[in-house]
Amino acid sequence: MRTKFSFVKKKELHKGILAVILLLPGILVLMPVILLFTGSFMDQYELKEYLNSIFMDGIGYIGWKLMPDYPTFENYKKLLFLSPQFFVLFWNSMKMTACILAGQLLIGVPAAWAFAAYRVRGGKGLFALYVVLMLLPFQVTMLSSYLVLNRLSLLNTQIAVILPAIFSTFPIFLVYGGFRGIPAQLFEAARIDGAGEAVIFFKIGIPLGKSGIMSAMVLGFLEYWNMMEQPMAFLDEKSLWPLSLYLPEITWAQAGHAFCASFITLIPAAFVFVMGQDYLEQGIIYSGLKE
Amino acid sequence: MKKSKRRAAFAVFLAPSFCGLGIFVLLPFLDVVRRSFTTAVTGKFTGMGNYRMIFGNHAFLTAVKNTLRFTSVCIPLLVLIGFLIAMPLSKLKNAGLIKSVYLFPLAMPTATIVMVWKMVFYKQGFLNLFLSKMGEWTGLWGEVHQDYLGTGAAFWVLVCSYIWKNAGYTIVLWLAGILSIPRELLEAAKVDGAGELGQIRYVILPNLKGTLYTIVILSFLNSFKIYREAYLVAGAYPNESIYLLQHTFNNWFVNMEFDKMAAAAVCTGAFLLIAILLLQRMWDRDEA
Fold first, then answer.
1. Is B231 a residue whose pLDDT tops 50?
2. Are B136 and A69 in contact (CB under 8 A)?
3. What Å distances lie between residue B279 and A284, B142, B209, CA to CA?
4. How many Cβ atoms sit within 10 Å of the Cβ of residue A79?
5. pLDDT on residue A291
6. How far is B146 from chain A (nearest CA, A)?
7. Cα(A10)–Cα(B84) distance, rounded to whole angstroms?
8. Do residues B251 and B263 touch, judged by C-beta distance below 8 A?
9. Helix, strand, or coil here: B45?
10. Which chain B residues have a beta carbon less than 8 Å from that of A57?
């Protein structure tokens, strides 16, 4: 009995050590968050002291403290109450992300349903086309998007960023992954009971394919909250920009402001990440399903 | 269900998406193909003129070379690192927390992280501070004042930030693949005397070909997004080692050199299409 016990215990210990080893690189992963967080509570003099050496060639190194000497909410107060510009951009980001996701729901979910629920001739070929479009990077389609947006006189409006993104084929792929898990017999049974195709879509498809839809929303939020290429190309006016373009414009002289703004930008993304982590993982796995 | 009715339903559900794609992607891309054979300003037909121009363009060739170098370094590295972490992780019961830690960078907006990269990789930044301290501690070398962003080392900075960001989903995909392998197969291999490495070599790896294909495709897709980091850390004209295809496109766009852009878009698109089809065929042949 005793030998068996110590064997089990040894195995547990083994696993514990393994877990610690695997968590070590994780510290590296989280370090940037900690830097941003602590930096956002430092006043400008303290930050200057730590960061100054960056700009003086060859003398000393950058410094840091995990606990600020004089923790202060000054940066947050300034950002939240004295810089209306930040709010405008924050809402720009929110608005664009929300519109894109809503559009993708409206357009993409039925499209994914078409591929998942109906086997027709040519369907496979079309699906392959969608996959290829999903894999084309923005730069390849940048000129073509520009030409259309120019013809529709939508350049320098937020619609120019929203509209092309709504027709992105990536979410369709994820939602399709969710729909594919529904057994086809269910549809047949519903049809025999006299349900129409729209009823089947709303009553069976959407409730049972929810995980695919949620995955597309979570991955989509993280993607569009971080969107840079599209607004950079299509929005000239700075008041239309999302936060992701504004942050890099803050100079080192306002480091406290930058840390604070970065941290606030991170919050919605972190929130969605924590709330939707299961969907995120599911989405990554769906994106891996091959037709 | 009748064939005609099935087709009608398919068409109705797909129509909004397909029309949108037609208007915003497919038709304009045809226009881009047409433009790639004409001059930018007058729109006169020049045959292969634009293509000859981009392939004689130093910036474009450098960018192609760097982009290929970047993907050929990053993707194998990412695949390997992901596997090395996922393998031991698959043995732990409560891998949830560790997985979240690795996934988190995926959620971090690039703009928020660029400042940290600068603090780490500047000449007087954290990395050099760490290396100098290590040198002092071991007595092997003195202070380090390597400039990372302005020299060829910038390439490796980019590689690191790519791995940092993308390791998470690679791990998730590997894990899903490893855990889907039937336990009986592994047990059988154990009974036949296969050790840890033997199991990996003869049971796990052959069963993960589909996962590998997926990871390669997705990593490829994400490798284009590294432009954000490159642009934010080093601007529109960075050190030559990280001047990527995306920089070329962007700079041409800013200068309105649409003829070159069109030709380059057609070439890049065609190259990607062929690469995807080849990969897919390789995978299908393995399946059969």
1. yes
2. no
3. 20, 48, 12
4. 20
5. 45
6. 10
7. 23
8. no
9. strand
10. 123
Distance from CA of A1 to the nearest CA of B (A): 25
What are the two backbone dihedrals, phi and then psi, of residue B38, each rounded to the nearest 5 degrees? -125, 165
CA angle in degrees (0–180, nearest 5) for B63-B66-B67 = 85
What percent of chain A is modeled with pLDDT above 70? 94
Torsions phi, psi for B47 (to 5 deg): 65, -130
From CA B32, how far away is CA A145, in angstroms rounded? 10
Asked if the C-beta of B85 comes within 8 angstroms of chain A's C-beta atoms, the answer is yes
Q: Tens of pLDDT along B99-150?
A: 888 888 888 888 888 888 888 888 778 888 888 888 878 877 777 777 787 7
**Most confident residue range from A21-25, B64-68, B218-222, B275-279:** B64-68
Tell me which chain B residues have a C-beta less than 8 angstroms from the C-beta of A34: none
Asked if the Cβ–Cβ distance from B18 to A111 is below 8 Å, we say yes
Distances in Å between the Cα of A151 and the Cα atoms of A160, A241, A287 are: 11, 22, 34
ipTM field: 0.87
Q: How far apart are CA A195 and CA A188, in angstroms?
A: 10
Determine the pLDDT at residue B266: 93
Question: Residue A73 and residue B61: Cα distance in Å, rounded?
Answer: 50
Q: Which domains does chain B have, with CATH numbers?
A: 60-287 (1.10.3720.10)
- Mean confidence (pLDDT) of chain B: 86
pLDDT tens digits, one per residue of A93-114: 999 999 999 999 999 999 999 9
Query: Strand, coil or helix: what is A191?
Result: helix
Among A35-49, A126-140, A143-157, B50-64, which stretch is predicted with the lowest mean pLDDT? A35-49
Q: Using CB atoms within 10 Å of the CB of residue A182, give its burial: 0 to 12 exposed, 13 to 18 middle, 19+ buried.
A: middle
**Apex A83 CA angle, A82 and A85, nearest 5:** 155
Q: Which residue of B has its CA nearest to A30?
A: B101
Domain annotation for chain A: domains and CATH numbers: 34-72 (no CATH), 83-287 (1.10.3720.10)
